[in-house]
User: What shape does this take?
Amino acid sequence: MGARKIQDENDARECIARMKKSGLALAHWARSAGIDGRSLHAWNVNLARGGSGSSHKTRQALAVRRVKLVELVPMAVSRVPRYVMQVSLQSKLTPSSTRQRFVG
Assistant: This one.
């Protein structure tokens, strides 16, 4: 059976406090406590950012503060010529030809 996931913010805060008190790294503490390390890590990152997720207005306010400029520029596309070579092999043993296709 897998490790349990963190249920909510209170559970996350409690687990993070116990982990810090133990002095162990997050992954080691989570494994020893039977907690899903990825779940605990995600909560740790989100709580460190200051987002509790408890209210929609708070999340919107945080999102407005975090807006950063993203510049989109056209990408230079290098067109490499495509060659298709078809080879037919005919054998005296079989009346039909076998075709192989090489794309380079």
Q: What stands out?
A: DSSP finds four helices and two strands in the chain. The longest strand covers residues 84-89.
